[in-house]
From TrEMBL, chain A:
Protein name: Maltose/maltodextrin transport system permease protein MalG
InterPro entries, per database record: BP-dep_ABC_trans_perm (IPR050901), MetI-like (IPR000515), MetI-like_sf (IPR035906)
Sequence similarity: Belongs to the binding-protein-dependent transport system permease family. MalFG subfamily.
Organism: Gemmobacter lutimaris
TM spans (from-to): 16-38, 86-107, 119-144, 150-169, 201-219, 252-273
Keyword field contains Transferase: no
Function recorded in the entry: Part of the ABC transporter complex MalEFGK involved in maltose/maltodextrin import. Probably responsible for the translocation of the substrate across the membrane.
Record's bilayer topology term: Multi-pass membrane protein
UniProtKB/TrEMBL annotation, chain B:
One Gene Ontology cellular component: ATP-binding cassette (ABC) transporter complex, substrate-binding subunit-containing
InterPro entries: AAA+_ATPase, ABC_transporter-like_ATP-bd, ABC_transporter-like_CS, ABC_transpr_MalK-like, ABC_transpr_MalK/UgpC-like, Mo/tungstate-bd_C_term_dom, NA-bd_OB-fold, OB_MalK-like
Similarity-based family: Belongs to the ABC transporter superfamily.
Keywords, sorted A to Z: ATP-binding, Nucleotide-binding, Transport
Keyword Translocase among UniProt keywords: no
CDD domains with a match to the protein in the record: ABC_MalK_N
Gene Ontology biological process terms, A to Z: carbohydrate transport
NCBIfam families: PRK11650.1
Listed name of the protein: sn-glycerol-3-phosphate ABC transporter ATP-binding protein UgpC
Keyword Nucleotide-binding listed: yes
Residues in ABC transporter domain copies: 4-234
MF terms in GO: ABC-type transporter activity; ATP binding; ATP hydrolysis activity
Gene, per the UniProt record: ugpC
PROSITE patterns: ABC_TRANSPORTER_1, ABC_TRANSPORTER_2
TrEMBL record, chain C:
Entry GO CC: plasma membrane
Keywords for this protein: Cell membrane, Membrane, Transmembrane, Transmembrane helix, Transport
A GO BP annotation: transmembrane transport
Main subcellular localisation: membrane
Keyword Isomerase: no
Species per Swiss-Prot/TrEMBL record: Gemmobacter lutimaris
Keyword Transport tagged: yes
Name of this chain's protein: Sugar ABC transporter permease
Family: Belongs to the binding-protein-dependent transport system permease family.
Topology in the lipid bilayer: Multi-pass membrane protein
Locations listed in the record: Cell membrane
Bilayer-spanning residue ranges: 12-33, 73-94, 106-127, 156-184, 205-224, 267-284
Organism classification: Bacteria, Pseudomonadati, Pseudomonadota, Alphaproteobacteria, Rhodobacterales
Length: 288, 361, 298
């Protein structure tokens, strides 16, 4: 009896420890972001107040108004940056998906010599640090005259995303039984039709999640964009964040507002794909 | 509808040859079953007929066309896969109509064909479901339905029943047989299961290691196996094989027991041979073994008995080999009891001990 | 049809190969070449000025470079290991929760959505000694009344950077390990329980070995992108104070774009690239090994 009670006590203590740990971890994860969101609604004086103001006295949309009006402190052309980011991310994602689909299909469906080496080779290109790559890329793009254009950045982001999309999509195609395509061929499809009518729709959800992953990478990329863009022609939002800084001051409130604008699409998309994203990575990786 | 003709068909993966020049003529409307142990090349052969594997050598005809290099869609065949390969993103109706849709048939025609196939296979109430919402047997029927809607020249089946439980398997076996009788289409059917092979086939093709061992009607391969491999592969329990030597015109076993040479067989004096007898043809004296022209008898010690209901299987030792025999009127048997057994010699076989080939004259 | 016919897999892989060649390989060849020259961004003709291995020898003798190199390896080692442990802990905690898991899972992935540059600013703000969240909180709680110079003191700055780095990347580990935890077959775990293992033992001897491939996947993914720490550091401290948080990447960026000495920067860049690729291949091999040990691979 005693030992039973003891066990019960231990169980309860463990449970309390578990919940406390979880609560602490989640707070650490969420608080910084929430603080940013909160500050985007607070007037600058309150953000800078000393001693700090913990309970906000007034929340307003001033920073957003200034941001979208393009007239706030510094007049950062946020809408243009948003548009640049959107064009570049969407286009590069679509292209990376097509290229990734072709490559992933090849890895999932064909056997050939040196497959493993080629795979790691492709992945290794992704490991090249952005800064190190930005130097020579800058030189070449300057020669080719595509610095500070959408095209230059799109091309770069496609290359950045292809290894991952290949990896993910390979994982998803592996889950689609080979026999499905064979059955389709017997039902009268060409290989091309069999792919688009059967294999593609079956792997669709996974491919979409690979796309969102690519989108997030492009959407958030900074190291390359900061060197390959120069002006409102092509500057993206992560680079635009720096417009809120000047030599000695930082417009925290304005920056927080832009940050929120950046996070919202990312948040929505990640929420949509979380399940598939994990499945793709683990299937591709574990069953490789 | 069409005949299928394989002439010296070879399949090699690089240097590894897995199908060795097989010849097979399948008549129009015939039901041919390929059987053989795992890895013997049944699926590979079937997939070459389907066009899913390249043919490394030889000639393949369907109807009167050579189809070696035609893609599957131009061969007018349909196939049922072991795991069914239903399109998971389509409803049963769409699955059934897919091939016709690809062939750009009129909506009305597709609808009619689908309704008809669904009717035949009692799938009508399931038409709007997705494959994920079906039971194993239902999926199997959809896979068959998908094969029949297009009225192909040839049906190919690759172990279509192996994922079903025993009861359902028997049921579906009957369905397939009926389907064949109704449609009269040529069928090539691969299976592991010799009961399926015996019950379904017009002719059975027994394969081993990428070669055809014997082709014949179920009765032929059962009654006149060309070698010990076929003899043990077809029939359950497998045929008993006893090693011996021809001495004085009889088969002398290791312990000196002598058995007469089965009628219709013959071998030179002194030759090492294998004597084959099925359990059905060796029974204890007085156990209703149907009398044949030639009989023989031996005494054996019973080791074990397995009552199966209508009959009892006896395991006995003869010349150091375990022999399975049958007993139709069950009676208690004591372990180690010595019994006299009768053998119907006319149903027995003699094989060469070395090559395993039947020694018929 | 006797045209030159490429095997289909090659045709399919060709677009990927071509793009990666154009955007990654060719520039790398160029940078490799320029690392043997005295190339300066402001004087294009210097690209042809061949100076052999001078840049490499210079880097080898440059104390700043070696400090940055050492610091980078240290940062990666500490960060990757802590991320792995914390991610494992987080994943186990989340997996044990019965209600609201979906929400927790999404919250767990929260940091993954943040652009690294945004993370940089966020923590620059949070660790700001004057108006930052951390100091405000410490002062309001009365734990201290001085402003702790989080980003101004060298050691504290390094700590702040590692904190930010771990904040962003732990979720990658957590989410993949969580996927692994879901995928564990229950039979062996239950067998272990019946065999008398304590919860810790069954975790150690059954669960953990099964999780290893997932951990290596996470490691491989992370090692592909270790350089995202560059963005964070660049924003938070830009290598300062007095180079106390200088990493290879910030050093390269400064040498190239501030000092405009491209050739030298490229030489250092090459060393950074080799470091990254080494990490990547190392973890891919580990992954393959772990996979075959569990008999999962094909
Ligand atoms: N891609 C391949 N490369 C090399 N060998 C292969 C390949 N595919 C099949 N084989 C070999 O070909 C032989 C025949 O395979 P097949 O699938 O036809 O056997 P099967 O008779 O259908 O067996 P089962 O009854 O187990 O389905 C096997 O030994 C197999 O190992
Ligand atoms: Mg097979």
């Amino acid at each position: 009896m005693a030992s039973n009670a003891e066990h019960r006590l231990r169980k309860r203590l463990l449970r309390i420890a578990h919940l406390t740990g979880l609560f602490l971890a989640m707070s650490l994860i969420c608080l910084p972001g929430l603080w940013i969101v909160l500050n985007s609604f607070r007037p600058t004086v309150e953000i800078m107040a000393k001693p700090p103001v913990w309970i906000p006295n007034s929340l307003n949309l001033d920073h957003y108004r200034a941001m979208f009006g393009g007239v706030g402190e510094g007049g950062v052309p946020v809408l243009t940056y948003f548009r640049n980011s959107l064009i570049i991310s969407v286009t590069s994602t679509l292209v990376a998906l097509l290229v990734g689909m072709a490559g992933g299909y090849a890895f999932a469906r064909y056997r050939f010599k040196g497959k493993a080496a080629l795979f790691v080779g492709l992945m290794a290109t992704r490991a090249v640090p952005g800064v190190a790559l930005s130097l020579p890329l800058f030189i070449i793009m300057a020669r080719a005259g595509i610095i500070d254009t959408h095209f230059g950045l799109i091309l770069t982001y496609v290359a950045l995303n292809v290894p991952f999309t290949v990896w993910l999509i390979d994982g998803f195609f592996r889950q689609v039984p080979r026999e499905l395509a064979e059955a389709a061929e017997i039902d009268g499809c060409t290989r091309w039709q069999a792919f688009w009518k059967v294999e593609f729709p079956v792997a669709r959800a996974g491919i979409a999640s690979a796309g969102i992953f690519a989108f997030l990478t492009s959407w958030n990329e900074y190291a390359l964009a900061s060197q390959l863009t120069r002006s409102v022609n092509s500057k993206t939002m992560p680079v635009g964040l720096l417009d809120f800084t000047s030599q000695f001051t930082l417009n925290w409130g304005g920056m927080c507002a832009l940050a929120v604008l950046m996070i919202i699409p990312a948040l929505v998309l990640t929420f949509l794909v979380q399940k598939h994203l994990i499945a793709g990575l683990t299937f591709g990786g574990v069953k490789g | 509808m069409a005949q299928v003709q394989l002439q010296g068909i070879v399949k090699a993966y690089g240097a590894l040859q897995v199908v060795h020049a097989i010849d097979l003529d399948i008549a129009d409307g015939e039901f041919v079953v390929l059987v053989g142990p795992s890895g013997c090349g049944k699926s590979t052969t079937l997939r070459m007929i389907a066009g899913l594997e390249d043919i490394s050598g030889g000639m393949l005809r369907i109807g009167d066309r050579v189809v070696n290099d035609l893609p599957p869609r131009d061969r007018n065949i349909s196939m049922v896969f072991q795991n069914y390969a239903l399109y998971p993103h389509m409803t049963v109706r769409e699955n059934l109509g897919f091939s016709l849709k690809i062939a750009k048939r009129a909506e009305a025609e597709i609808a009619k064909a689908v309704t008809e196939a669904a009717e035949i296979l009692s799938l009508t109430p399931l038409l709007e479901r997705k494959p994920g919402q079906l039971s194993g047997g239902q999926r199997q029927r959809v896979a068959m339905g998908r094969a029949i809607v297009r009225h192909p020249d040839v049906f190919l089946f690759d172990e279509p029943l192996s994922n079903l439980d025993a009861k359902l398997r028997t049921q579906m076996r009957v369905e397939i047989k009926k389907l064949h009788q109704r449609l009269g289409t040529t069928i090539v059917y691969v299976t592991h299961d010799q009961v399926e092979a015996m019950t379904l086939a017009d002719r059975i093709v027994i394969m081993r290691d990428g070669r055809i061992e014997q082709i014949g009607t179920p009765l032929e391969v059962f009654e006149t196996p060309v070698n010990t491999f076929v003899a043990t592969f077809i029939g359950s329990p497998p045929m008993n094989l006893l090693e011996g030597r021809i001495t004085d015109g009889t088969v002398e076993l290791a312990d000196g027991t002598r058995l007469p040479i089965p009628p219709g067989h013959g071998a030179a004096e002194g030759r090492a041979v294998t004597f084959g007898v099925r359990a059905d043809n060796i029974m204890p004296v007085g156990h209703a073994l149907p009398p044949t022209a030639h009989m023989a008898d031996v005494e054996m010690e019973v080791q074990l008995s397995e009552p199966l209901g209508t009959e009892t299987l006896l395991f006995a030792m003869l010349a150091g080999t375990e022999v399975q025999a049958k007993m139709l009127n069950p009676r208690p048997v004591r372990l180690g009891e010595r019994l006299r057994f009768q053998i119907s010699l006319d149903k027995c076989h003699l094989f060469d001990a070395e090559t395993g080939a039947a020694l018929r004259v | 049809m006797s045209r030159l016919k490429l095997p289909p897999w090659l045709v399919l892989l060709l677009p990927a190969i071509i793009i990666l060649m154009a955007v990654v390989l060719v520039p790398l060849v160029l940078s490799f070449y320029s690392s043997f020259t005295a190339y300066q961004l402001t004087r294009p003709d210097s690209l042809t000025k061949w100076i052999g291995t001078f840049n490499y020898r210079k880097a080898a003798g440059d104390a700043n470079f070696w400090w940055a190199f050492g610091r980078t390896v240290l940062l990666l080692t500490i960060a990757l290991n802590l991320e792995m442990l914390l991610g494992l802990g987080l994943a186990v905690m989340v997996s044990k929760v019965t209600t609201g898991q979906r929400l927790l899972r999404t919250a767990m992935m929260f940091p993954m959505m943040f652009s690294p540059v945004l993370v940089g600013f966020q923590f620059k703000f949070i660790f700001n000694d004057n108006v930052g969240l951390v100091n405000n909180a410490l002062q309001s709680l009365g734990l201290t009344d001085v402003a702790i110079p989080w980003l101004v003191d060298g050691h504290l700055a390094m700590f702040s950077i590692i904190f930010a780095e771990i904040w962003t990347s732990t979720s990658v580990f957590a989410i993949l390990i969580l996927a692994g935890l879901y995928a564990i077959p229950q039979d062996p775990v239950e067998a272990a329980k019946v065999d008398g293992c304590t919860p810790w033992q069954s975790f150690r001897f059954v669960t953990l070995p099964f999780l290893m491939p997932f951990i290596y996947i996470a490691m491989a993914i992370r090692s592909l992108d270790v350089a995202r720490a560059y963005d964070i550091v660049q924003i938070m401290t830009n290598g300062g104070p007095a180079r106390r948080t200088e990493l290879l990447w910030t050093l390269i960026g400064r040498t190239a774009y501030v000092d405009a000495r491209m050739g030298y920067a490229n030489a250092m860049g090459y060393i950074a690239i080799l470091l990254s690729i080494f990490f990547t291949i190392y973890f891919f091999r580990k992954l393959t090994a772990a996979r075959s040990e569990l008999g999962m691979g094909v």
